Each structure stands twice: as structure tokens, then as C-alpha cells.
Amino acid sequence: MTPLATYRLQIQPEFPFAAAADAVPALAALGISHLHLSPVLEAVPGSTHGYDVTDHARIREELGGEEGLRALAAAARAHGLGLVVDLVPNHMAASPLHNRALRAVLRDGPDSPYARWFDVDWAAGGGKLLLPVLGRPVGEELPEMRVADGLLHAGGQHFPLRPGTEDLPLPGLLDAQHYRLAWWRLARTELNYRRFFTISDLIGVRVEDPEVFAATHGKILELVRDGVVHGLRIDHPDGLADPEGYLRELRRQAGPDCWIVVEKILTGEEPLPASWPVAGTTGYDALRRIDGVFVDPAGAEELAGHYRRFAAPAADEGGEWEATARRAAYEVVERELAAEVAFLTRTAALVCAADPARRDHAPWALGQAVRELLVRVPVYRPYGPDREDVLTERAAEEAKASFTVPAEAAAVDAVRDLALGRLGDGPAQAAFLTRFAQTSSALRAKSVEDKAFYRYTPLISANEVGGEPGEPAVSPAAFHAYCARLDRDWPATGTALSTHDTKRSADVRARIAVLSQCPQRWGKLLDDVGRTPSPDPQTAWSAWQSALGLGSPYTDRLAPAVLKAVREAALRTTWTEADPAYEQAVLDFVDAGPGGPPLYTVSLLARELDPYVRANTLGAALLHLTMPGVPDLYQGTEREYLALVDPDNRQPYAEGPDDEKTALTRAALALRRRLPEAFGRPGTYAPLTADGPAAEHCLAFGRGGRTVTAVTRLALRLEEGGGWAGTTLTLPEGRWSDALGGGREFTGGGPVDLAELFADRPVALLSRVGGDAA
């Protein structure tokens, strides 16, 4: 069945199933219909997230095991709640100690029955699987290696041995294994197994193989059939060899009543493939639209100009969005994804060598063509018949222009044809087609989300997954058009505002977004606090915005987030090539500036902006709770929730005091529960348009003729323009009561003054009194 609303809990050793069961009564009283649990399968011991799965056949013992999960389900059921579980089909932990399937492959090599589980290019590794897990080069680790208890002990880890090699001298023993131990730095160029993005600790799983699917999904599907689990969130489907085929098999085995949503990141107006048998996405596309309607486009542009003057970044170091994203893409495809590009180049060369018309393409030219086309894929992954709309002729011509010798540029056509599936359907062609698509999604994620979003920072609230930092504002008309599409095509899709992956929680983003309405005040603030020495102005700009978003001196939380930002940006320091002096300068700056005495100045501005932050916060929450789709509330976000990037946003759940946002959440969820036909069926969304001088500041819509949502947007600009005077909203026919409390009623069929509608708060949620829908 389709949930009315879900509530995401980060299940972890500090908050296991039993703790979640204790929270059930309070969460049920909030008005949700389903608990949404982070991954529950066996994972690396101590993991706080669970995406590093080690055993698909067991529920994680650290969380309470299967008995604990079933007890949680029973407690939830007793309060009228179901369970939705986060499922990770694409990858598992590349930990020989904990992953028995991988351990078997290391012991027995390609003849292991588990070898089919993983995408290993044995030929590229000389018949061995590269394990880049050592902290130092092998030569430096060798003196400390030893064999004990039938295992190889190296670099503080244990590895299985190929049968019959236990008594060999150490150098010969290493050479005799089905794997090659290596320094971790070799992962960039030498890795010969598919991984999750650029994370070598997570090895890709071949769920396209029916036996592997059965082995990795048996337990979860058993729980679905037993009525323990009622819905599935599918993590990173773009990483799979055949996402649609996988989803069809999952749907077949899970049954028609299991609610399934996919973590598919859609770019711009990109649609979710209509043929996927799912309810929709996990909601990042909704997040972008909700956030965007509270951004002033003119102010955002002015803010960007001020940013360029203050931070003085080069165009491709954060000065211009498109140039920044393109530079980041080149860096990732040439460095972090070098091993993936090498696989694609080898495979393309193999195909071309068998074709007399293409056999003279040099490997280097094919490699350049692969890189140049990958960086020009404008979405995470091209799909089916839409591939040509993504890998366009224009992209090919631009790729060819990168070649200094025009005659060599013909390699681009060969690679494009391969990526479009035009060069036959043999094993090599199929391998290229699949891996190109998988690598495309990894490139987009690492270059845009994890580099460019930390480099281009005029308004950091816009820098979220699926966001458009170059165009952060969304007009009411665009919002209505998006909601109309959801209402028509994906009425049961997931929607989200905060998740475990958002870089800043919705309430932090709501605070920062107000700056688009007052760029001059932001400029004055920077002038006032600018005496604090900073390592570079770009870091200072984003750190001060983060401090404003938190609004309080949480130095212990702010410093790790700022340090993570500069490492992800990779302009002055990185995770793997750290600059200790620069990083210490960053920490010293946070301690003396955004986390120190100057924060008083930031707090003053925050208090001045509080009324407009309130409008953003309540407005975003109400849109999320009443627009088409199934709202997913992240733990704690039913009240003010100020969190930065993980691990700050993955702390164990704790109940807190109710506030105005809690009352709004309860009221909206109660209405969804009382009027499911108004929210859960296609054709229920109806835009409403205000009239008068301040009409652009009201965003309103009806649902099923039974409810009306109205919110104030750009409240600071509204106040500066004279408020709601002379501006009205025409309600549908009938009598309407205030669902947020106060006992007020309004008569529809004619104009209602918005000053009256918003007299108590900057948002309104109305419920039709009696009768049928108008």
C-alpha cells in the first residue's frame, strides 16, 4: 500500500531496533503511516550508516538481529504503522574479514562460485584481483607481514590464502595468491573491480545475475512476504548494470502492493523513466523545487556578483557555475576515475580491433574520446531511447574539437556509437555500454556533488543533490508545472526536504536562502567580520554562511563541516593529499571567526532575519507535507532541526520539545490521514493564483477540492514592498476552516484578503467544511 507519510530513522548501534520501538508511540502520534529505516542487513561492525553490507542473508546483529526487527515491526503494527527499509543492491563492503563472499573469491579466485558476484576484470589484473588496502607500499609493509592461523596478516588486516600456499616463503606466497595486495594509492589507476563511485572500500555487486539477485535479496523479500516490510527505498539504482531489469524483477518478487521508490537523481527537467515499475523517486527533485520558490532570482544574481568580488575565484574555480562543474568533471575523470576510463578504453579497443573500419583507432585516442564524452553527459546516466538526447551530436563535435590532430577525432564517433549501443551486441559491446553508463553516474556524483558544489558557493543553500546552483530560483509557475507532472504521472512518489545525505538540513537552508532577499546586508556583515584572518576568501564566504545557517556558536559542529568542505573542494587540500598547514589555518579561522566572538555579529543579523526565516521554514514544511507525493520526514525535522553535512546529520534520534513547526506538521499529517482521497489520487492538484500588487509573494494550491495550501514567499521583499495591501486569493466555493488552529473560517467563491488569511502566521492550511469536493 502507498504510505501517507514516512519518517526516516537512522538505525545504528547507538540507536538499534529496540530504541526505535520505544519511539513508535510518539511517532505514531505525529501522524505518519510508516517508519523508514536505514539499511538493516549485516554490515561492517560499528558502521553508523549500514551501506557497507557484508551479509545479505542476515539482519544486523548489532541492531538486534532479525528478532529485533520483527519486534519493531510488531510494535509499529500495534500503533498502525508499517515499515519501509533502505535496500542497497549496488555494492557491499570490500572487507575480506567481514564479507564472506569476497573472502571466498580471494581464496579460490575466478573458479569460486562467488566470483560471479563481482565485476572483476581478471585479465587486466594479470589474473589477480587488486586489493589496494595497504597504508604503505608493499616493500615497506613486507617486513611486518606474517602467516598465522591460516591467514596472511598484513597492514593490520587478515587475508585468506589460496589452498596449498600456506608454507611458501613470503614473497612467493604473495605471488601465488588470486589477489595482489597493494598500496591504497594504486586504486586510482590500477583497480580492476567495479566499486561504488570512487570508494574502493565498497565493491560493486552483479545483481543482474539471477543467482546473485536471489542470494542478495532472499532475506529482504522474505520479510516483505511475511508482512514485516511494506516498502523499499532502492539506493543508487544508477550503479546497476540494468536498473530497469532489476526493478522489474524486484517488483515481480516483492508483489504489487510493496511501495518502491528509487534514489534517482534527476537533473533539470529530466523525467524518471516511465517504464520503471516504481512509485517514483526518493524526492531530491521535490527538494530543489521547494527550496527554489523561496529564493529571489534578482537577489541571488546580485549575491553572486558580490561573491565574485569578495572571493575573486577564477571562472573554473568557482567564479562561474558551468565552468566550475566542467573543470571538476575533467579532474575526476582523469584522476579518481582513471581505472574506470582505462577499462572503457581497453574494451573500446577490443571492439574496434574486430572491426576493419575502426581497427586503426589508437588506444590513446579512444581514451581521450571516452573522457571527452563522459564530461559532456549532462545527467547522471543516459537511459534507453533517450540516450541520443543526452549524448548529442553537438557533444560529439565538442569532443572532437579537443583533438589536436583532426584525423584522430574519428575515435569520438566510435566511442559514441558504442555508448549508444550501435556497434552490435557482443559481450564486449554490452560491457562497454553498461560500464559507460555506470561510470557516467559516478562522474556526475563525484564532480558535481562532491567538488563543484563546494567550489561555487554564492548561495550555499542551493548546493544540494539534484540542485542547480547556477539557477537557484524556481518560479511559482515552474513549481506548479512540476507538481502537475507529479500529480499526473507519479502521485505516490517520495518527496523530501532533509535526508541523511543533505549537506545542510532544510532549516539551515531556509535561513541561508533569506540572503537572496538582502544581499546588501550580507555584504555589510562580511565587512563587519572581515578583520578575522582567513586562509582564503572563498572558504571564509561559505563558512560565514554556514554560521548564519546554524545561528549559534556550535564551533564543534561547524569546524568539521568547513574542513570537510575544503577537502571536498580539493582546491587547496584533499582527503588524500592533505595540506596540514592550510587545514590548520582553516580550523584556526573557524575558531577565531565564525565559531568565535564575531559570531555575535552574525547572531544579530540572524535575529533581524528571523521573521523571514520563519516564513521560509514553515512555508517549505507545508509545501512538502501537502504537495503531490509521499512526504518523508527525516528524524527530528518535525521541529526546528539545524544540521550540517554528515556525520552531523546522522546522530541518533532523540525526542525534543514541540514547537510551531511541530504543530504545523501534526495538523498537515492529520489532514492527510483524514482525507487520503484528496492527497493520494491522480488529478487532485489545482494551482490557485493570487491577484494584486503582491501576488507573486503567494504560492497556493488546492488538493482534491478538499484542502487549500497557501504560503508566503520572499517575505522580506514583501515587507519592503508594502505588504499584502490590495492582494487577494480566490478560494474554491464553499466554507473553509483553518486547519492550523484558531477557529477561523473563510468563505470561498470570492476573493479573500491575504492580509487576513496570513494574519496569524505566514502560511495557511484550509480544510473544506462539510459536503463533497467542489
* Overall geometry: globular
Largest sheet entry: 8 strands, parallel
Question: Gyration radius, to the nearest Å?
Answer: 27 Å
What oligomeric state is this? Answer: single chain
Count of strand segments: 27
Cα(first) to Cα(last) distance is: 27 Å
Helical percentage: 40-55%
Largest sheet, order of strands side by side?
16-15-14-5-2-1-18-17
| DSSP helical segment count | 28
Overall pLDDT metric = 96
- Strand fraction equals 5-15%
**Class of secondary structure makeup:** alpha/beta
Contiguous uncertain segments of 5+ residues: none
Write a structural description.
The structure is a single chain. α8 (243-254) links the parallel β14 and β15. With 774 residues, the chain is an alpha/beta fold. The strands form 7 sheets. The chain has an 8-stranded parallel beta sheet. It has a 6-stranded antiparallel beta sheet with strand order 19-21-22-27-24-25, covered by helices on one side.
